[in-house]
Amino acid sequence: MIFWRVKPLNQILETAEKKALKRQLGPIQLTLLGIGAVIGTGIFVLTAEAAQKAGPSMMIAFVIAAVVCGLAALAYAELASMLPVSGSAYTYTYGVMGELIAWVVGWALVLEYAIGATAVTVGWSKYMNGLLNNDLFGLVAPGSLALPDWLQTGYFSGGGFNLLAFLIGLAVTWLLVIGTSKSARVNAVLVGIKIVALSAFILLAIPAVTNANLHPFMPGGWGNPIGSNGVGVLGAAASIFFAYVGFDAVSTAAEETKNPNRNIPIGLLGALLVCTVFYLLVGYGAAGSIGAQPLFGADGLPLDPGTPAMTAACVGSDALVCSGEPLAHVMRMLGHPVIGNLIGLAAVIALPSVILMMMFGQTRIFFTMSRDGLLPDAFSAVHPRFFTPHVITYVTGIVVSICGALFPVGKLADTSNAGTLLAFAMVAIGVMILRRQQPERPRPFRTPLVWIVCPLAVIGCCVLFVNLSAIAKGVFVGWAVIGLVLYRLYGYRRSQLAPPSN
């Protein structure tokens, strides 16, 4: 059987009380944390990749991804209000489907949070290098501050060591260690900067929209619901899903939240609503103002972003799909170079908030898994002064920094999505199981139309998963196998639910 070693929900709450984190976050901070986690590399960087896969119909891709996330958010809100503890989908699954599936979900969440944070460090470095390669608003000679080419991109992107991605990862690690409330205050400022930057983009780009730039609207077609390998609207939705990843990180802060039964649902749904509105307006402005047509290969299909063929096709091209900093690029193409540079500067200043929240989520999940005995006790050590899980924060930060220095952003984002989609599907399934098994249990927030919303969430996650790149799906399977081996060698015997004889 796979539904074994189910940890009762009451026991989960009791375990959290024995080694608890300090409650210090309110509803506004949570909503801002969610917005900070969501608005980032997905919209600032991956807009170009979505355009390459779907053209102007990337706007539909944004909607599809938002709908799937919205359905999952309703399920998350119910479980988070019932279980206001750290651990997100891992904890919820443990209390419903048992330890083995919980381990698989927790292990998969490493792909969402740690690999997601890594992708954002690379996206941040693109904007930072873009500024250094220019004249910094006329203050210096163009390129005089530029790093050597081999320090601007990672080894697996054709460079050497992405120095800036490495350094920003270390900086965020230090910020997380010194305290959650301090991190939240800094994050609130960074969220404000991102909102101003996106608002400026929308105000300048939308008036420049012309119908001609939106045709053909779907040059790559819809794609195949059972797997299009990244082509068309569904392929773009599978990739741009990364633009919404992170809203569930709000639920990982449940144990550090004041009045979590009320504030967690507010943070989840509020963050998702704000971000969806901005994404649709930005996508429309980008595609309609300068065009967003993909580059095609000899087979008549859009080229795969990040491949040598795409790189070759982009040589000397000003197309949106070729830009590493698409929003700044749109502004420059529209004759607003200063605004473009300011948007680039805003991305440089604000993207660290996304890294912060993704690493925040990762450390809290490992903290909870350690508290359950599935990982070494050192991972749940709490700093005596800052009240943060400092050991696992250092470990996570070092791994994120090194991976960010070596790997490309697009493939990292797809790989991150694979873990996220599994977690979302399991949460939706968990809500349905609990409705049957424990209908009388108090639910401060109830998922509306649960027998419609949750099945649709699962179906949506499956459709997006099969439309991820083959590399992302392969990495996901390999990562799952490694996780199962580690569980059998360590977690299975050390778990708090393991029989004494083990």
UniProtKB/TrEMBL annotation:
Keywords: Membrane, Transmembrane, Transmembrane helix, Transport. The chain crosses the membrane at residues 28-46, 58-79, 100-124, 155-177, 189-210, 230-254, 266-287, 338-361, 391-410, 416-435, 447-466, 472-490. InterPro entries: AA/rel_permease1 (IPR002293). One of its GO terms (molecular function) is amino acid transmembrane transporter activity. It is found in: Membrane. The keyword 4Fe-4S does not apply. It is a multi-pass membrane protein. GO terms for cellular component: membrane. The keyword Electron transport does not apply. This is APA family basic amino acid/polyamine antiporter. It comes from Dokdonella fugitiva.
